[in-house]
Amino acid sequence: MDNHTCPRPFVNEDVFPYTDGYFESRLDIVGWCAIPVFIIIFLLILTYAVLPKEATGRHYLTTVPGIGFLLLSLTYILPLIHRPDQCADHITPNDSTSDSMCTGTVVVIVVGVWFVVISCLFRVLSLHLYVVWEKKLGVKFMTVSLTCIFMGTIALSAMPVLVTGASYQFGEVCYLKPSGNNWSFLVPLIIVAVAIFILQIWTLIHCVMSVIQGIWVDRRYSTQASRELYKDGRTSVQSNKLLTSMQWRPMLTAFGIDLHVALFCALFIMVRTEHHFTEDTFDTWVNCLLSFPDDTDRCLPETGGLGPSEDLVFACFLMLGISGLWGVILVMRRSMIRGWIQLLKSFVRPARSPDIDLEHHNWKRFSETEKHSVRS
């Protein structure tokens, strides 16, 4: 292609009109790894739908995040089904205003993110209210939670897509434009992530302090008469011990989601800083390109301080594509496998009651109302 008076390897920007697309860098991300993750998440949701609750321990605050993880994997599968037209011209990628596939992928990924994050917030909140404030949550909390999850996801997804816009920057999936007003996405995301972290830490500290207090009570009051005075307190301590040991799943989920949010917010902020660089920041890189027009890869070391590395970007979005795998690992139970075995056997002979593992027996120590609340 004629460079139109520009020294190689550069081209004349005036040749390409500012009519379509979005003018930013782009990287390539392969989404094949999302296919097996999508299948695994789909099987988990199918397990929740087919097997009895005793075998799955399902809860609405466990099922809804599964939908979000499914959408995150689907985002990277869609370009494999239909290859998008990434380029408006030779140097300009398309954006959400010029390509419908771009709009579709960014909507799916943003909706998936908010489904997971808001569901995690209410999961942590329900545990916090039950353990710390001893509130028995029921249908009213479930209604409020589901309403906030779905309505909040719609509102918080529409806002950045309409305000910020999206473009092909990292391969065949559209992401929010870093130079746009993407604070409409980052600020709510950071606020929710901080709320999740505070509530989870508060709950964890409360449980640990209760256990420590119980040990102190046991040592201080050795007689039977003294122990009777603290019977109610010790019962509460034992409950907190059981709750702490059994809530490792939501705890790890909350901290894992916070870790993902921190990484992606840091990545977007690093990309935004590129728009505040002065022109002389690029002098070394540009001079290298002019010196070696046929070997531009030789100049890559000169771009080290010009933003996040390609490896970091690839790693972050790969984590996003396979994040559902960690969600499945955290909610997976042996009783699910036994439940499927019993279900398959039922097609040949009358089904037996699914086996209940030791964890289910532990839950028997609580009332049905309390169990419903703690599961959330």
UniProtKB/TrEMBL annotation:
The record's InterPro entries line, in alphabetical order, gives: GPCR_GPR1/git3-like
Keyword line: Membrane, Transmembrane, Transmembrane helix
* Transmembrane regions: 29-51, 60-81, 101-125, 137-163, 183-212, 251-271, 312-332
User: Which PANTHER family does this one have?
Assistant: G-PROTEIN COUPLED RECEPTORS FAMILY 2 PROFILE 2 DOMAIN-CONTAINING PROTEIN, G_PROTEIN_RECEP_F2_4 DOMAIN-CONTAINING PROTEIN
Q: State the protein's name.
A: G-protein coupled receptors family 2 profile 2 domain-containing protein
Q: Which organism is it from?
A: Talaromyces rugulosus
